[in-house]
Design brief:
By secondary structure, this protein is mostly beta strands. It contains 9 helices and 58 strands.
């Protein structure tokens, strides 16, 4: 191939903007000559698109498609479109009148796609060539001047003005060159016989056959024409038609009859026998595609047809007779290939990323989908579909689609999608193709940690070990990674006016709650805290739960004796009149237990008694009663040990020791006083002073009462004898110690119905009157003898 001459050219660009919905498309067109050097300037694509050069890198500007990416490149520094690889038009487009290399320019943020094409202009870089470099002709001497002989045409892969424009031969008076153009604009050379031949004068000619193209710097190719002058065969075969036109489907099977060519020769014998063949040039075109029967002229399909590669064929058919010299007739066969739907749509995904956050709003762009069908007409029209019931949709423009979201996404529901895209053409039968796009939904922190319950009841036994775990709270967060990392803490609140941190602590990682102190049911029965669970996302999300801590009672308190009161280490004192009958209530033991429930249920039991037959203790009430009447033989002091125990497990108990004295004649007050005297440890100094003052006052008051009663008794002895209810009167100071003739040797007084006996010292005798009301209560009413009982009331 000759060196490419310098070629001045004009590069022009225009852009047609088409807006549909939110897609922006551009159509850019450049024109450049072929054979430009690597790095040669094509155009300033940034300027032509009105783009800011500084934004090219930020918006990820790039070229895509098979052709553009191979031959072209764009500098992101200045937006210059240049040659990546030397472009040879002929291998790319062949004889096509218009040769273009398509590309797509894509940008992001916002997403834009521009379609562009670079038209490759032909330059005269190929010289005409002949097949074998020589052409042999046999011409009968009988041929008359004006007869034309078809010559093999030269081939030049260039187009337009750069293809073959003229044929010439070296000078001779017998021959000249004539040319004609076919309907397909092919220049056909013919050798014109200008002068009759005389074989006897010259039997052969050698001519230089030159083909010249029409380029600015013309290129030529040569071949030798060897003309042999023969004896005449004066009729050449003639075809029925100068041009045969026929159509054949591209899916026609091997051996399909396309057409039959027919030529007639008026000669007879061998001069009239015809053999059909393709010309040498067309034989190379038709090889492995069509075959021509040399005898019948049948043209058949001999190989696969492909409309997308070649949609028509122009073949030169020749008929050669068997005369000597042979004569040849020519005809042109035009075969049009009919497209069938034999190409399924091709799906190309133009995507920068297959990830999208779950909080992306509807209408968010994901990727471009380019669908191409190499067929033509309806066979090349494509419809693209997505499955139903998915949160995505396609926005269309021509065969370019934009995949966007149609609904709000939820990663916790569906974390990824495999979208099967179906592309179907409108041919018959329709062809389709599938492509699956993998879409990953990325997580955002849109879920707060969730507790299983809003309120938890935690039961803790009192006297728990400090530092022990009492409960574990778990909150779940369906988000991912740091958005699902949950930490736990207490909400600031107080327990008995103290911060919750003084009672409890919580493991921030796993939600385990630990007790920092031992709980005492008797001090703190329950309390409430708030636990908060927070994730580590941005923004931080949290939720809380209420924990009711209920302290369970443990039987850790023994019953406490409330009544009768006694000092530790000593026995309680109680008096009992000897006249007490069976079932007489001696006293009642009262006890309390700080525990609760069964742990505070108290039972009483006598574990020791001086006389087990004399007293009983009621199990539930603690009442001590006499089991029988008191006998004269019974000891005056009975010691009882009462066990007071609760119903807990294990049971706790306390004991109280009771000294019960059998009283002959006295009052409870005296008994209690004597008890106090016997137990001087009960008194403090202040108590002693108070008792002395109270005793003096009581003695003075008592002396006055006794004096008044004595005087009254002396005056009204007779009246006393007349009362229905007997009264007992004692004279103080009687030296004879007699009372109505009865010796004054008794030292005790018995009060009927009272169950009490009061001892009276011998040296002190005084007159008292016991009212019958004393039998109705535990109190002793004294009044002057002979006084009416109504006055005592």
């Amino acid at each position: 191939m000759a060196t490419l001459p310098s070629f001045p050219f004009n590069v022009f660009a225009f852009m047609l903007l088409i807006c549909e919905q939110d897609l922006i498309f551009g159509q850019i067109h450049y024109s450049i000559p072929e054979e430009m050097e690597q790095g040669a300037f094509v155009g300033n694509i940034a300027q032509d698109l009105g783009l800011n050069v500084r934004q090219l890198s930020a918006r990820k500007f790039r070229l895509s498609s098979d052709d553009g990416g191979r031959y072209l490149k764009v500098s992101l520094d200045n937006g210059i479109l240049s040659i990546r690889e030397r472009i040879d038009r002929e291998p790319i487009c062949g004889q096509a009148e218009i040769c273009t290399v398509s590309f797509k320019a894509t940008l992001e943020n916002p997403s834009e796609v521009y379609r562009g094409e670079v038209e490759i202009l032909d330059v005269n870089d190929n010289s005409p060539t002949f097949g074998d470099g020589s052409i042999a002709l046999q011409i009968s001497e009988a041929s008359a001047p004006g007869v034309r002989f078809r010559l093999e045409r030269a081939e030049d892969p260039d187009i337009g003005n750069n293809t073959i424009a003229a044929y010439t031969i070296s000078f001779t008076e017998y021959f000249s060159i004539k040319t004609r153009r076919t309907e397909s604009d092919v220049l056909i050379p013919e050798l014109l016989l200008d002068k009759s031949l005389d074989r006897e004068l010259q039997s052969s000619f050698q001519l230089l056959f030159t083909a010249t193209d029409g380029g600015t710097r013309q290129r030529t190719g040569t071949a030798q024409i060897l003309v042999t002058v023969l004896d005449f065969n004066d009729n050449a075969p003639v075809f029925d038609h100068d041009i045969y036109r026929v159509s054949v489907s591209e899916d026609a099977p091997h051996g399909t009859l396309v057409m039959i060519v027919k030529a007639n020769d008026l000669d007879e014998g061998l001069n009239g026998e015809i053999t059909y063949s393709f010309s040498d040039v067309d034989l190379r075109k038709a090889r492995n595609v069509f075959s021509l029967d040399p005898d019948s002229g049948e043209v058949r399909v001999d190989g696969p047809l492909d409309f997308e590669k070649t949609n028509s064929y122009s073949l030169d058919v020749q008929a050669v007779d068997h005369g000597s010299p042979t004569m040849t007739g020519h005809s042109n066969v035009l075969i049009k290939v009919i497209d069938v739907n034999d190409n399924a749509p091709e799906i190309k995904v133009i995507s920068a990323s297959n990830k999208i956050p779950e909080n992306a709003p509807p209408g968010t762009f994901l990727t471009f989908i380019d669908v191409v069908d190499r067929d033509s007409g309806e066979n090349g029209q494509v419809r693209c579909e997505l499955p139903k019931n998915i949160p995505f949709r396609l926005q269309t423009s021509s065969n370019l689609y934009k995949l966007v979201t149609s609904e709000t996404l939820d990663r916790e529901g569906i974390s990824e999608y495999r979208l099967p895209i179906l592309a179907r053409d409108l041919g018959s039968p329709s062809l389709s193709s599938n492509k699956t796009i993998h879409i990953i939904i990325t997580d955002v922190n849109d879920n707060a940690p969730r507790f299983a319950e809003s309120t938890y009841n935690v039961y803790v036994m009192e006297n728990n070990a400090p530092g022990a775990s009492i409960f574990v709270l778990t909150a779940l967060d369906p988000d991912l990674e740091q958005n699902s990392y949950v930490s736990y803490s207490f909400v600031d609140n107080f327990i008995q006016n103290l911060p919750v941190s003084t009672y409890l602590t919580i493991n921030s990682m796993n939600g385990t709650i630990y007790a920092l102190r031992s709980f005492d049911y008797e001090e703190l029965k329950n309390f409430q805290i708030q636990v908060q669970a927070r994730d580590a996302g941005v923004p931080l999300l949290s939720s809380s739960a209420t924990v009711n801590v209920i302290v369970l009672d443990q039987n850790d308190n023994a019953p406490v004796i409330v009544s009768p009161s006694y000092q530790s280490g000593s026995a309680a004192e109680e008096g009992l009149p000897r006249s007490a009958g069976q079932g007489y209530l001696v006293t009642k033991i009262m006890a309390t237990d700080a525990d609760s429930g069964q742990n505070a249920r108290i039972f009483y039991q006598m574990v020791k008694s001086t006389d087990p037959t004399l007293f009983t203790v009621t199990k539930n009430s603690g009442e001590i009663r006499t089991a029988r009447r008191i006998l004269q033989t019974d000891t005056p002091v009975h010691t009882l040990v009462i066990l007071v125990k609760d119903n807990g497990q294990p049971s706790q108990s306390s004991t109280v020791t009771m000294n019960i004295r059998v009283l002959e004649i006295s009052t409870e007050g005296i008994t209690e006083s004597s008890t106090l005297v016997k137990n001087p440890g009960y008194f403090s100094d202040l108590n002693v002073y108070l008792i002395i003052i109270f005793s003096c006052t009581s003695v003075a008051f008592l002396l006055i009462i006794v004096l008044l009663i004595g005087i009254k008794c002396k005056q009204d002895r007779s009246i006393i004898q007349g009362y229905n209810t007997p009264s007992y009167c004692y004279n103080r100071g009687d030296s004879q110690d007699t009372y109505k003739g009865r010796p004054a040797m008794e030292e005790t007084l018995r009060y009927p119905g009272t169950g009490r006996v009061v001892r009276v010292p011998e040296p002190h005798q005084y007159s008292v009157c016991l009212s019958p009301e004393s039998a109705k209560s535990d109190f002793l009413f004294l009044q002057p003898c002979g006084a009416p009982t109504s006055q005592a009331e």
